[in-house]
Amino acid sequence: MSNVLVLGAGMISRPLVRYLLDQPGYFVKMASRTVSKAEKIIDSHERGKAEALNVSNDAKLEKLVTESDVTVSLLPYIYHVKVAKLCIKHKKHLVTTSYVSDEMRELDNKAREAGVLFLNECGLDPGIDHMSAMRIIHKIKKKGGVVVSFKSTTGALPSHEANTNPFGYKFSWSPRGVLLASRNPSKWLEDGKEISIPGEQLFENYILQDVPGVGTFENYPNRNSLPYKDVYGLKDTKTVYRGTFRMTGWCETMRKIVALGWLSEEPVKGFSGKTYGDLTRHLIGAGSDENLPMATAAFLGLDTYSAVLKRLEWLGLFSDEQLPNDRDNPLDYLNGITLEKMSMDKGERDMIVMYHDFMAGYPSKKEYITSTLVEYGIPGGDTAIARTVALPAAIAVKKILEGKMDITGVHIPVIPEIYSPILDELEEMGIKFTEKTEVL
Questions:
Q1: 125 is catalytic
Q2: How far is Cα 87 from Cα 172, in angstroms, rounded to an integer?
Q3: DSSP secondary structure letters along 194-239
Q4: Which of 28, 318, 321, 417 sits 20 to 30 Å CA-CA off 189?
């Protein structure tokens, strides 16, 4: 019997745990601060167990790691290195779905010496994006070509029939994570030129992009794309871009929310109000006798009939709704009201759209290649975001335990030994890309 430790019981953990419980010969222990969440996922399975864990309890965390063969950390990324060091000490493999940090990379030699694999970025984005892109990049190189241009964009969205609010967005994972990502600066390579955008201008730099058979979306840059020139081995590539899809209207609206100060994590000095409207009034310096929507329009340079202003009003930023007592800053207040008004309803589906496009150069021709993944959630069941983040990690755990990923050190899934078995099994589950090639 192989033992798997899963740390965390968040929104994407269920498909991973249930997949592993469906495999014969695995015992899954799920440890979470909120043990009731883990118990619900384990659902009294004979080869599963839920335990309460405060990650600051070093002794208990270490005991759980020692009892496992593979640890899966679905904790916030700040805890991964702590878990990784215990895995080195006790020679245990580790899988995460988070971006690999510099501190994690520094553990590469120690992981190799311990004979263990630390596989990071094994989710959706990051994860499936790496794997699917590298499969095509390696195919181009094998045919004697070079990648001239590479663009990759992913969106976690409501399906079209569930797109029933004016923001065109519903949260199928942590709202706070989505909101925090809205402040990230971005960099990418375009026609050989490095483009750098500060976080406050992120939403000013979007394009409209058609995804054939799916729809037209806003596409804005996702973090720093420049390292992927080296990570993906794209030494001859002139354009390297990674982006995020949203429904139309999102970028302009979020730009104005940023301008209002609603994404600040700092308590607002001098604020003593009680409602969302009070805070908006304070942030723009409006008097108590001023019409709040009109004052906000003037502050943002908007017409009073603008769609952005109507979205802010719909969300409740001008309302008398009480601010949560257990929070103390605009971002966390906003997190509360967005979760309340923009969550998936029972029976609704979310939608993952991932779209790669490549320009490949050969001695006698050029090829334009697109690769598209569209995946829908299961009404009343797992969301598309949960499945596409969790299942790659779950498959990786199985392959490690089967001895089919016989590599050590700190990795992300950009080599065939890792990505091929994961993509192959995802295809068997119906999570499959559609590729098209046009010869130019």
A1: yes
A2: 31
A3: EEEE-GGGGGGS-EEEEETTTEEEEEEE-SB-TTHHHHTT-TT-SE
A4: 417
- pLDDT, tens digit, 9 for 90 and up, residues 203-238: 999 999 999 999 999 999 999 999 999 999 999 999
Q: What is the CATH number of domain 128-250+345-385+434-439?
A: 3.30.360.10
Q: Is 357 within 8 Å of 240 (Cβ atoms)?
A: no
Helix-, strand-, coil-residue percentages of the chain, each rounded to 5: 40, 25, 35
Indicate the average pLDDT of the chain.
95
Q: Which of 125, 278, 357, 382 is catalytic?
A: 125
Distance between alpha carbon 267 and the CA centroid of its chain, in Å?
27
Tokens of 252: 């302009």
Nearest to 394 by CA among 2, 133, 1, 4: 4
β-partners of residue 196 are 187
| β-pairing verdict for 350-361 and 146-158 | antiparallel
Q: Tell me if the pTM is above 0.85.
A: yes
Q: In the block, which residue shows the tokens 């045919």?
A: 143
Residues of the chain with CATH 3.40.50.720: 2-120
In this structure, what DSSP letter does residue 123 have? Answer: B
User: Where along the chain do the CATH 3.30.360.10 domains lie?
Assistant: 128-250+345-385+434-439
Closest CA to 195 of 216, 168, 222, 175: 222
Closest CA to 101 of 82, 81, 127: 81
Coil, strand, or helix at residue 148?
A: strand
